[in-house]
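Comment on both lines for my students:
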Amino acid sequence: MVDWHKAIEQTYVVKFPQQHLATFGVTNIDYFIVTEPVYTAFDPSKKELEGVLRTGTVKANQPHVITPNYALNISGFSKNAYEYMESVSFQYGPNSPAIMYQYSNHPDNLEIVGGIPTEIAQRISQDLSKKNHNLSVVIVGVDEFWDVALLKFIYEYTASSLSFNSQEIMSAGLLDPVEKYGNLPTVVVSQIEEMFKSVLMGGSVDVLKQELDKWGVYNFYEDRFLGLFK
C-alpha cells in the first residue's frame, strides 16, 4: 500500500488555475482529479485501461487578517503550537498582521473513464482551456489519497496567491496599524466598529465582548463597551 508521503510524490497538477485567489471576495475553483483505480492492483488485465475521475468545487473564503493574539484563540492545537504562537507574538508584536485562508470542499461526482489517467487528465485540461475555464484545476493523483492531492494543490495555490493578496490588502491601507488601539490593523478596527453599530441596532453584546477578547484589545474599548449598558 502506498502511504500518503509517496502519494504526494506521485501527485502533480496538469492544469493550474489562471487566476489568483480573490483578495476581496470568494473564489470557487472547480477540480478534476484523475487516479488509477485501486482494483487494478488486484486485476492486472485492467491496469491503465481506465481511470477514476472525481469532480467538485473548492470554495476559498475571502482572506482574513489575523494577529498572533487572535491565533492564540484557535482551538485544537498542542501546547507546543500555542507556545510557538506566543513566541511569535513576543517577537513581532501581539497585533502584527497575517493573512488567514479558509477553504471548504464540495465533492460533486465520481465516474470511471476510459483511458490511462495521464491521457484523461490531458483531455480534460485541453477541453477546459478551450472553454477559457480559468478557475479550474486538473490533477493526477493516487486513488486512496485523492483528497491529499487536493490539499497539496490548495497549499500550492495559496502560496502562489499570497504575495498578490498581500499587496492588494496593503495597497488598500487595511494593514496600517492604528496606534489608538494598540496597533491593531485598520481592517480589524473597522470590523469592530461595525460590531459596535450592530449592538446599537440590537446585536449581541456577548459576541462583541468575545471578539474584543479574541483580539486582545478589550482594555482599549472598555469604557465604550461599558457605555453600552448606560
